[in-house]
Amino acid sequence: MLVHAPILAIAVPLLGAFSLLGVSYINRTLRNVWACLIAAFTSAMAVAVAIRAFTEGVVVYTLGAASPTESVTAGGFPIRIVLAVDGLGAFMGLIAALAGVVAFIYCFQYLREEEGKSLGLSLLLLLWAGILGMVYTGDLFNFFVFLEITSIAACALIGYRVWESRPAEAAFKTMAMYTLGGLLVLIAVGILYGEYDALNIAYLSKAITGSLLDRLALGLLLGGLLMKAGAVPAHMWAPDAYGEAPAMATIVLVANTQAAIYAILRVVFTLFGGALASPGIGWLIASLGIATVLVAVLMAVVQRHLGRLIAYGAVSQLGYMLLAVGVGLVARGGFGEVALTGGIFHMINDAASVGLLFLVVGAVRRAAGSVDLPSLGGLGHTLRWEAGFFLLGALALAGIPPLNGFASKFLIYESTFRASPILAALALLASILLLAVVVRAFQGAFLGPRAREASPAPRGMLVAMGILALVIIVFGLFPGFFIERIVSPAVQAVLTGREAYLAAVLGG
Amino acid sequence: MSALFYLLLAIGTAFNGLGAFALMRFPDVYTRIHGATKCTTFGSIFSILAVVAYGFYKGGGEGGTLALHALLALFFLLITNPTGSHALARAAHRAGVKPVGAVVDRLEEKK
Amino acid sequence: MRKWGAWAASAVFIYIVYLILTLWTGKLGLWSPGELIAGAVIAVLGAIPLAEVVWKRGDARLLQPHRWILFIFYLIGPFFLSMARANFDVAYRVITGKIKPGIVRFQPHLKTDFARTLLANSITLTPGTLTVDVDDDTGEFYVHWIYVRNPDPRPEEVCGPFPAWARRIAE
Amino acid sequence: MIAELGFLVAAAVLVGYVFVSMGRLAAGPTTPDRAVALDTINTLVVATMVLLGAALGQVVLVDVAIVYALLSFIATLYIARHLEGGPL
Amino acid sequence: MSVIVRTVSRVVAPVALAFGAYVIMHGHLTPGGGFQGGAVVASVVALLVVAFGCERWRKWTHVLLPLEDVGAMAFVILAFLGVGATFFRNVLAGSGGLFGAPVPQLGPNPGALNTAGTLPLMNWAVGFKVIAGLGAVVLLLALFGREDG
Amino acid sequence: MGNMPFVVSMILVAIGFLTLITRRNLIKLAIGISIIEMGVNLFLVSLGYVKGGIAPIYTYAPPEARAMVFPTPQALTLTAIVIGLATTALMLAFAVVIYRHRGTLDAGKIRELRG
Amino acid sequence: MKRWLFLASLLILAGYFIAGGVWLRPFGEPARSEMDRYFIEHAQTEVAANNVVTAIVFDYRGYDTLGEATVLFAAVVGVALLLRRARG
Amino acid sequence: MTALHVLTLILVVVGAALAFWFRDLLAAVIALAGSSLLLSLEFYLLQAPDVAIAEAGIGAALTVAIYILAIRKTHYKEEE
Q1: How close, in Å, is residue F115 to chain H by CA atoms?
Q2: Taking CB atoms and an 8 Å limit, are H49 and D45 in contact across chains?
Q3: For chain B, what is the domain count?
């Protein structure tokens, strides 16, 4: 059973998504139970894969071969699709599992039956499976396919609230950007295939020589993935999508964006790690990251829509991660390692804090019927828990010391300062500005006189928010423990794990 | 035997070309449909018949399959082409395209 | 009962098409047993959704074999000849540009769908004429005539013997 | 075999005719004109495909032509249906 | 559409269905397979919609969506068959049973239907899925917004 | 001839990008994405072509054939085509829903979300 | 102004793409072919399928096909969600 | 053979350019269908019959169908 854990973590949610509609025709309670079972099983499998990857090294699973480890044929080249999970992939799997479980707990009471709950659950499972497939795969074309699964499932979820106009518009915009990004990735895959007649990441990584075409492919891959992640020149879709998607989808969308960052890491450090991972690309990514941070924070100042405000906050956090990746690439080892530690640790912190904020926004939308800041106010009188969670998430987002955001952001600032003090100063400034923005949002929405009636969120939604709050607090209190246990293997997999990855997939 | 193929092919390409040029020469939609449908269908019949003859000449399962499948394609062309043209002509008339220089238009009178 | 008949007819039709497609697949016989079984299954299943479309009341007369022989004879003989004539006619019109178009109406007195379809498609493929519309109730044909000789023609003037053939084959 | 070269040449000529039809598709003053051009291109391409199936010596290629002959009809019907107007 | 189009559709629809089924059935021998044949058969749905109007087929949406689920699930379950060795292992190839025969001769050959293991079954699963899915898309788009004009 | 198919596929991609940038109708944007997908599909398939090769199918293959074209790009292209269709269908559904709410398809007029 | 900037960037992008097309190896002469030769040689013995493409689609790269089916499923579910809800 | 390739590829580009150029959405869809059809022919020439059938079935019939259904549900002309 555990041998098959990587594929079961992907195939079981797919099977669940396919069967969910059929089960929902029979009985709704049965469907809920079935969905819970699938979700629990999937996250258990993700955790199992993570444990194996952290303890035994790279987990390899060959699809369709006589045995899972038989990844290469007699000639020494892989022909079948290989799942290869190293520390980084396992870490991303954990983030996806966290996001998925929280989203599931949340959505059972958030979605309404008459709005198409079965379809929404099904799409959520598909999105989840897509993210897991993206981070576990060791095959470039397969990566593209799962990228498209996440694109389509995410866009369908963003357009979930069809009785309004703006979700559909946001979804259309997102769809266009995602599809373009996916097509750029596909062109890059085609170029690499045409040059080396292979699709396996490890085999390609060994074969890549750094020719002109390889540079072209690297540029296309980075362009497509940055489009998918929502970095600055292509960030227009992200606030709309985050702001208009239903809350439980948003947290998985955040995980999806981080999967794009994961892919950038994979491409830069593993696929092109041998030939083309030059500091120039690192500076490019870092400058894009700082631009994303600044633009997003400046845009967040003027927002009057709570969801979009938080969405811009989420985009700025993405910028921090890109900054860390860039700095890590500028100096491989030394302070680069610190930067990567901060960046990768920031991924899970970001998923927790931004996710918590979005869940609160969803609860507010459900309770008050609107998320326009001028029309809100005084919600703290009735929504006590939500107010507390919002404050917690906001402080974590801004990086206030006892919370988890501080630990990772501090690492990023420190390393960035050593690379370029100006960048570090800009990042710090943006962080302070962000703090002001979220505190103003908190004050506008939850404090002050009571503007309208609101009913508190049901218990299931509170439990989901509570899990994330717990993650924020625990990670903030014991950052060293988690960095050592789960972040450090991922960082090592990025920085020095390329040889181990190639050896595990290609044998010898 | 080759002479037969060449003859059929020559007739087929000639009429297909006639259809394409009729498409360019005629003044309005209906006359273009006339030219295009009649000539391309007739030309395609001959072109495909050349292939059918070739298939039967080759013989065996391979040639037989070639001939049969080509005949099937021909059959589809024969029943779908005029129908599609009819649908287009009817649609054009309903969309308000008048026949150029028509001496009589009974369908217009009917409405 | 009629429902079952429609289903059976559709199934047989699908089966025949499938068998034509897979001719010469067997080693000794024309079809291998696998193909026969697979075709049967496909025909039985595929006929379920299509039965109500394929079969209409009064189609049974199309199953008489002499109509098929007539149809093939018609295809090879008069139809093919007038098609050839049609093409030279188009060539003549393309070169000289001599046209006097118009849409005329005539009443061929055909009742069944298949007869009307056969006539319409024949008209479209033969000299100087193109079916534009068919009146569902009265069965009147509206034909675009590339060189109108008579604004109110009899059927024979427009399309020669085709209505008689259509009646013989499909009515 | 010599006949195969003949098929190839005929196919090339037919593709040349597609150019002429494409001119009508580009120029056609009304949308029905363009639809007629598309219909003509469909027929020409089906004929080309059958010819090429014989010329390239692979029987299985002819299936593509059958699919095309079937499905171009549906596209034409949709275009005609849209031009007619009225509810579907 | 006119009576002519409807009559021709009555002839073309079963032929296209048979041809699509042929393409799916012979996916491992001739060009085609589940997707291509499924697309051909889904075009039959499109043909019926355009020729006979979509109101008549409204009840099919309730059939097509579950059918798609069934096709997708069948595909995953066929993939799960190989989980004794690995996921997607072609366990039926060379087993001698259904579709388990070897190729009659290596190199060019006329092809035998009874080969290729799970491939024909997977073709059918994907074919069902594509038929149902694309047919449902066309029907849903055609039916959208019909109540109020 | 040279590598004309590659150049042509890239020209198709460029035409699609041009459509995306200069046109504002939502359905036209979907058409632009379709054009890009066509270009990418052509690129993939032409990558696998081998001079003088026959189609990678053994059924009734000519026995004197020397080589077969590469099958992998064709398999990849099949996947890409179906993904393209799914994308197109979903985008058009979004366009229809947007039109339902806004009464227009002009992206310039419905950019209330710009920001 | 913005439009011209867009067009200029597009021209650069198009030049980039087309240059990529030109730089690529000559059409029809792949440089390396281990994987595809393996597929062509082993499809008949390992999978017992005559059509190598289908053998790849459903056996060697069956997992991709699962993903593709999932994409289609997601699209159909999305369309059903959008169009069904907006109607009611 | 080479001439066929060149002709078909030029036609594909012409069709795509027309699909870009036409303001009338239906005309653009017709041009896209023509381009897709010729692309299918090019796949056929590149010895990829599987892809050609898929492109024929999906590009010629189903894409046109869903585009036209979407156009029916929205405006006919592209707005300036």
Answers
A1: 23
A2: no
A3: 1
